[in-house]
Design a protein that fits this description.
The complex is a heterodimer of chains A (about 600) and B (about 270).
Chain A lengths: L19 H28 L1 H5 L3 E3 L3 E2 H17 L4 E2 L2 E2 L5 H27 L11 H8 L4 H24 L2 H19 L1 H10 L3 H7 L8 H31 L2 H25 L2 H26 L8 H15 L12 H23 L4 H20 L4 H4 L11 E3 L3 E3 L4 H23 L2 H11 L1 H6 L4 H27 L9 H14 L4 H15 L15 H15 L8 H7 L1 H10 L20
Antiparallel strand pairs in A: 1-2, 3-4, 5-6
Helix pairs in contact in A: 1-3, 1-4, 3-4, 3-6, 4-5, 4-6, 7-10, 8-9, 11-17, 12-17, 12-20, 12-21, 12-22, 13-14, 13-15, 13-20, 14-20, 17-20, 18-20, 21-22, 21-23, 24-25
Chain B lengths: L8 E10 L2 E11 L4 E5 L6 H8 L7 E6 L2 E2 L5 H7 L1 E3 L12 H7 L9 H6 L2 H19 L19 H14 L4 E5 L7 H18 L2 E5 L3 H7 L2 E6 L2 E6 L1 H4 L3 H19 L1
Parallel strand pairs in B: 3-8, 3-9, 6-7, 7-8
Antiparallel strand pairs in B: 1-2, 1-4, 4-5, 9-10
Helix pairs in contact in B: 3-5, 3-6, 5-6
């Protein structure tokens, strides 16, 4: 980044007053960003999201999630427009009045989009192509008080929102952080309602849950106040400590570090074991779904994140795992029905998926880059179509699939199936632990290094004695086997498998989870699955925001675009990946610490030059 | 050691064509155990193509390449490396996001055996092999003094200066435990002090590590200093070969490549 943000507060010196042209550019930028935001507002409104999300209160009778969505945009725009940019060392605007004025204007322009929309909604009816051009939208946008009020109120909301957004820039960082944390926490706690309420009730504190959350969803006023207060205090006083604690853990070395890490792992494991006992079956179902996707994402992470093979047909292995388990355990499978116990079937699942991985991998793996991605996409579909085909319907039941698959019998003790989501979750948890161990061990082995080398430069890896075909194939197979575990659990959890459960969409969702969470990072991938699948929901599984389900893919896409722009390394990236994507900054840091060596003192073509 | 009569590397009638272009044309050459051979020639003479052919990175059109009396034809690049030929690249190609230590560790891939199961079960054999890989990697790195070891070990290769990247690339090639080392312009871009140092190191590579070395170089002071024999290529063909003293005054070499100034320089120096 060549533009550096300037602290608000620090007034520029008089001789560095912004040149006239820069000011012109500022106004143009304002108009542009305002217009884009206005377009986004109208787009969101017409997508139907606000109307649908209006059913989901954040704070009872005050604020719904629908309004949060359209109301947040002026604030964001107002904040962005106030960003201080230095061009060639000269700030393009004076800190102070500009932020407030530009923020207000930009916010107003953004929300003016909705004002225009209100006017249009009252005078025209184009419901025919635009399904969401509805009276409900008009009511929502005009707060049930008529179009004139609607037009004016949005100009007002936009201006106020923009003013707040711009004003945030002028606040000291600590206060700004506190306010943002408070707002974000209230929304988050409201979104997590099901989980939190369930958990609180689980520890026999139903009255607290009732007091905290309204009867029909959303935080009560007192609940919101308490949440905001706690979040505010924590952000105001706690952040420094949190940072210090993290720095302390990172500075630990040797046995102390190991102890800290294992303590953290034990704590996480304890939470994951205790939480399902406290929550109800709906939440457990959710956790189990998240677990299934964590398992899939961990498998794909080995293929994409470690070995750098962009596999767009990963769902194939999920499907093969599911069908193999279904055929071998269900009494009703069409051709062969040995009715193996699930754990016996699992051995076959591993073998079969491994073989399928080899078969698909062998021709695909010699390709590189885009070609490989396209071909894997094709194979993903081929596998699904094979299960769907009449040709194999004698084995797999075609479109009817295989139904009445029994649960997983655990050593005669208990049977885990869809009616027992808690059991499913524990089962998934065990396999996630296995997948994490496998990823973690392999990454730090001869094989893991070879994968990384292949990802970095395949030609050189080959010249350094790595059999790239074998190594990539192995990544493919390991990934396939991990995915098949998820498939096998899925089949016995749901109790039936259909070809329509294995659409290409599943591949895409898993890939988005991996990219969003952070390629090559185990923790990142888990966090990505928890957020995307847990909150938004999987391809067919509802998340905490069930209201979102229609707009899931829209949000996925928007999140992905935003992530690629703002944080391409993902939510919780691996150190290596961060380095890769922010090499310049990394090198500058190393240079500042005096760790970039310039002992040769001559042209350092790729190192330090050309980076002023 | 092989018998002195059998050359380590023998190239017979090698031709490489790209479309209609003959990059290498009917080349014959030999390299013996423990020999340092430099390859010189003008741009486009086919020097790097020759390296690429030996390391199986380009397909050869006709002819044969024998290493320790058996042909390298039809082998993949990784198999050639496993047979004992390692190389560096003209435009340094490190695994820049891997650490310096990992760069030399990964190069031992073809000399080590532990697979996925060893890693998963964390067997004693696996741990022993990891320790060995690490020790051998550090040994190769410490050949270049303290530059690449110590706190540098766990830094990514991207922080290295240009000269140190070249050194790391040589260390990475050494880590593959080759018998023959191909160095493509090892001192390119280095200053005179560094290039003199690296020239000495090339001599030590042969003396202490027992590698035979072929290197491509444009810096005649390096060629003069360290090579046992000089091979001159021009338009993909062998122009001449022999001792530096003889080759450098050969009128054909002077015309095709060196130009008059080198002779004058040499005359002044000697």
């Amino acid at each position: 980044m060549t533009a550096t943000e300037m602290r608000p507060g620090a007034a520029p010196e008089p001789e560095l007053a912004p040149p006239r042209r820069a000011l012109d550019q500022n106004w143009r930028r304002l108009a542009r960003m305002g217009a884009v935001a206005a377009f986004v507002e109208v787009f969101i409104a017409l997508s139907g999201m606000p109307v649908r999300l209006d059913e989901r209160p954040v704070i009872v009778s005050i604020l719904s999630l629908g309004y949060v969505f359209i109301g947040a945009i002026p604030i964001v725009v107002g904040n962005r427009i106030g960003r201080q940019v230095r061009r060639e060392g000269v700030p393009v605007h004076k800190a102070g009045g500009y932020e407030l004025l530009a923020g207000t204007l930009a916010g107003a322009v953004a929300a003016a989009g909705l004002s225009v929309l209100v006017a249009l909604l009252t005078h025209f009816d184009i419901r025919e192509p635009l399904v969401n051009w509805s009276p409900q939208l008009l009511d929502l946008l005009s707060f049930n008080r008529g179009p004139v009020f609607g037009v004016l109120i949005w100009l007002g909301i936009g201006a106020v929102g923009g003013f707040i957004g711009g004003g945030l820039r002028l606040l000291p960082a600590r206060w700004r952080r506190t306010l943002v944390t408070m707002a974000a926490t209230v929304v988050l706690i409201s979104i997590l309602e099901q989980l939190v309420a369930d958990l609180v009730s689980g520890v026999r504190l139903e009255p607290v849950a009732d007091w905290f959350y309204g009867r029909r969803g959303g935080l009560t006023h007192s609940g919101a106040g308490v949440t905001a207060a706690i979040a505010g205090v924590a952000a105001f006083f706690g952040r420094g400590r949190l940072k210090a604690a993290r720095a302390h853990v990172q500075s630990l070395e040797g046995p102390a570090r190991t102890r800290a890490t294992s303590l953290m792992i034990l704590l996480t494991a304890a939470i994951l074991i205790v939480v399902p006992l406290l929550v109800g079956s709906l939440t457990n179902e959710l956790l189990a779904n998240v677990g299934l996707f964590v398992l899939l994402a961990l498998g794909l992470n080995i293929v994409v994140g470690l070995a750098g093979i962009l596999d767009l047909g990963y769902v194939a292995f999920f499907a093969v795992g599911s069908y193999t388990a279904a055929v071998l355990t269900a009494a009703t499978s069409p051709r062969i029905n040995p009715e193996f116990p699930w754990f016996v079937a699992l051995i076959f699942v591993v073998v079969v998926t491994g073989l399928v991985g080899l078969f698909i991998g062998a021709p695909v793996i010699r390709m590189r880059g885009d070609y490989l991605a396209i071909v894997t996409l094709g194979f993903g579909e081929i596998i699904r179509l094979l299960f769907l085909s009449d040709w194999l319907s004698g084995w797999f039941g075609g479109a009817q699939g295989i139904t009445a698959i029994g649960g997983v019998e655990i050593f005669g003790l208990t049977t885990v199936d869809g009616t027992n989501p808690r059991g499913v979750f524990y089962l998934v948890l065990v396999f996630c632990a296995i997948a994490i161990y496998v990823s973690w061990r392999l990454e730090r082995s001869r094989l893991g290094r070879a994968w990384m080398a292949v990802r970095e430069d395949e030609t050189v890896a080959e010249a350094m004695g790595i059999n790239t075909v074998n190594v990539k194939l192995l990544a493919f197979v390991v990934g396939a086997v991990l995915g098949s575990f998820s498939g096998a659990i899925f089949a016995n959890k749901v109790g039936s498998v259909f070809p329509s459960s294995f659409l290409i969409l599943v591949s895409m969702v898993i890939l988005v989870v991996v990219i969003f969470g952070g390629m090559g990072s185990i923790v990142g991938v888990i966090a990505g699955a928890a957020l995307l699948i847990g909150v938004l929901g999987g391809p067919k599984q509802p998340g905490l925001l069930a209201e979102f389900s229609e707009f899931k893919l829209l949000i996925y896409g928007a999140l992905l675009v935003w992530m690629m722009l703002a944080r391409p390394e993902g939510l919780i990236p691996s150190a290596r990946r961060t380095r890769e994507l922010h090499q310049e900054e990394f090198l500058q840091d190393a240079w500042l610490r005096g760790e970039v060596d310039t002992d040769d003192g001559n042209g350092d073509a790729q190192g330090t030059e050309g980076r002023s | 050691m092989n018998g002195s009569s059998v050359p380590l590397l023998e190239i017979r009638d090698l031709s490489i064509e790209f479309g209609g272009l003959k990059a290498v044309n009917g080349l014959n050459m030999e390299v013996n155990d423990g020999e340092i051979v430099s390859v010189i020639g003008p741009n486009g003479a086919g020097k790097t193509t020759l390296f690429n052919a030996i390391s199986a990175m380009v397909p050869i059109t006709s002819g044969d390449i024998l290493f320790e009396s058996s042909s390298l034809l039809g082998l993949d690049a990784n198999q050639v490396t496993a047979r004992g030929i390692a190389r560096t690249f003209q435009n340094v190609r490190l695994f820049t996001n891997m650490t310096i230590l990992e760069n030399v560790m990964v190069a031992q891939h073809c000399r080590t055996r532990q697979g996925a199961f060893g890693a998963l079960l964390y067997t004693r054999a696996f741990r022993r092999e990891e320790d060995e890989i690490r020790a051998r990697g550090e040994e190769a790195l410490s050949f270049f003094g303290s530059r690449l070891v110590g706190f540098r070990l766990n830094q990514p290769a991207s922080v290295l200066s240009y000269a140190n990247r070249r050194r790391l690339e040589i260390a990475r090639a050494m880590a593959t435990q080759p018998k023959l080392l191909l160095l493509d312009e090892p001192v390119a871009g280095m200053n005179p002090v560094e290039s003199a140092e690296l020239t000495r190191l090339i001599g030590r590579l042969r003396d202490e590590w027992g590698f035979a070395i072929i290197f491509i170089e444009h810096d005649m002071s390096v060629v003069r200093e360290v090579s046992d024999r000089v091979i001159v290529l021009n338009h993909g063909e062998l122009l001449t070969e022999g001792l530096y003293a003889d080759v450098s005054v050969d009128p054909r070499v002077v015309e095709a490549y060196l130009g008059q100034e080198t002779i004058v320089e040499d005359a002044i120096k000697s």
